[in-house]
TrEMBL record:
NADPH binds at T18, G19, S20, I21, G44, N138, E140, G217. Mn(2+) binds at D162, E164, E233. It comes from Branchiibius cervicis. Pathway: Isoprenoid biosynthesis; isopentenyl diphosphate biosynthesis via DXP pathway; isopentenyl diphosphate from 1-deoxy-D-xylulose 5-phosphate: step 1/6. This is 1-deoxy-D-xylulose 5-phosphate reductoisomerase. It catalyses: 2-C-methyl-D-erythritol 4-phosphate + NADP(+) = 1-deoxy-D-xylulose 5-phosphate + NADPH + H(+). Gene3D superfamilies: 1.10.1740.10, NAD(P)-binding Rossmann-like Domain.
């Protein structure tokens, strides 16, 4: 579709506006004012000044933070607006655990969920219930919510932003879903690719945060290092594309130029490539199925380069195999896996546990989990609470 045929400006609600996904989305949006207009933003509230600056820059009508004094935020917005010569700007400011739900319900054409962690579940459900298109970076909400999220989704309402899933969705754009044989999810292998279980013992938080290709938030970067991120992405692929787990492969591709692939029944494989960057997945998420011109510089094919592929080392990195088990088991097992992992990641960064304690603790929590017969929001949240508490008990043992 040419620019002239484009459907016009989309309104956007941005959840997690201060994070890696959120700030990159703002760059795309402000570079394309003909396509996008932000009407609402939310963040955790760790940096109220940044939220205020974003609000004034974007002229958002609704501004929410999970924690922090809303009067202080409103006052800072007022100050910055006056400095910018926009004294008339007076958004609604909300604070508290429901702030992102309110932002998700703002009626935007597109809600981009860039919150980190399964705390993004209620905003995900709220965006779907409000009828907005959900551009989903917050994979955790889909994984823990599973069927709850899927039963809310209308056809075409959920657009994956996670790079691997955006790649698969792009490979499936031609409408050839019935002829898919396998999904091939690529993995960088993380900063410890090639390391043995023994070598991983003394890994420090700083080392775990040195992702080879992407600058991302703390949780996802740590999950890339343990390969929990890839485990979550296998479950995410299963839920998004309705492909059985035994038809979802993971291959290590350290350069991350291929973002994932789809193998078809005739033996042909389609790969989606581009530099390792989130600009294309985010811009496609905002404007699906349209492509934002110049969202990213293309690969320079005149340069010699090698793309490598290697199998996953399941012995040193058992997180993907464990994710397959919890994904197959379904119900609240994925919620328990994710919640236990979130707690372990925090404990690792607080210096309380070793890197190599993370996945075995998640394994133990999942092994001990008894899922409820019902699956609804309350049972998911209860399973998460249980898994978080149990993870701490295991770690303190
Ligand atoms: N970064 C990337 O390249 C990629 C990220 N993803 C996924 O996208 C999501 C975001 O990742 P990323 O941007 O890296 O993470 P960051 O840690 O950089 O940002 C997280 C954002 O979520 C906000 N947040 C945290 N808690 C809440 C809350 N309770 N309510 C509202 N907002 C909250 C944070 O606000 P505050 O700073 O105030 O706490 C921040 O704006 C994750 O699910 C991740 O797995 C997927 C693929 C790639
Ligand atoms: C950019 C993105 O989608 C991340 O999920 C990234 O792919 C992490 O890569 P690895 O988990 O493969 O290191
Ligand atoms: Mn990813």
């Amino acid at each position: 579709m040419s620019d002239e045929q484009h459907r016009g400006q989309r309104t956007v609600a941005l959840l997690g506006s201060t994070g890696s996904i959120g700030t990159q989305a703002i760059d795309i949006i402000t570079a394309n004012p003909d396509r996008f207009r932000v009407i609402a933003i939310s963040a955790g509230g760790r940096d109220l000044d940044l939220v205020a600056r974003q609000a004034v820059q974007l002229q958002a009508e609704l501004v929410g933070v999970a924690a922090g004094d809303e009067r202080e935020l409103a006052a800072r917005i007022g100050e910055l607006a006056r400095e910018a010569g926009r004294s008339a700007y007076l958004p609604q400011v909300v604070s508290g655990p429901d702030a992102s739900v309110q932002v998700a319900q703002s009626g935007a054409d597109v809600v981009l969920n860039g919150i980190t962690g399964s705390i993004g579940l209620r905003p995900t459900l709220a965006a779907l219930q409000a009828g907005s298109t959900l551009a989903l970076a917050n994979k955790e909400s889909l994984i823990v919510g599973g069927p709850l999220v899927k039963e809310q989704v209308k056809p075409g309402q959920l657009v994956p932003v996670d790079s691997e899933h955006s790649a698969i969705a792009q490979c499936l754009m031609a409408g050839t879903r019935d002829e898919v044989r396998r999904l091939v999810v690529t993995a960088s292998g993380g900063p410890f690719r090639g390391w043995s279980a023994e070598q991983l013992r003394d890994v420090t938080p700083a080392q775990a945060l040195a992702h080879p290709n992407f600058a991302m938030g703390k949780v996802i970067t740590t999950n890339s290092a343990t390969l929990v991120n890839k485990g979550l992405e296998v479950i995410e692929a299963h839920l998004l594309f309705d492909v059985p787990f035994d038809q979802i492969e993971v291959v290590v591709h350290p350069q991350q130029y291929i973002h994932s692939m789809v193998e078809f029944v005739d033996g042909s494989t389609m790969a989606q490539c581009g530099p390792p960057s989130m600009l294309v997945p985010i811009s496609l998420g905002l404007d699906w199925p349209h492509r934002v011109p110049d969202a990213e510089a293309p690969i320079d094919w005149t340069q010699a380069r090698s793309w490598d592929f290697e199998p996953l080392d399941n012995e040193a990195f058992p997180a993907v195999a464990l994710a397959r088990q919890v994904g197959e088991a379904g119900r609240t097992f994925p919620a328990a896996y994710n919640a236990a992992n979130e707690e372990c990641v925090e404990a690792f960064h607080a210096g309380q546990i070793a890197f190599t304690d993370i996945v075995p603790t998640v394994q133990r929590v999942v092994d001990e989990h008894t899922p409820d017969a019902q699956l609804d929001l309350d049972t998911v949240l209860a399973a998460e609470d249980w898994a978080r508490a149990r993870a701490h008990e295991v770690l303190e043992d």
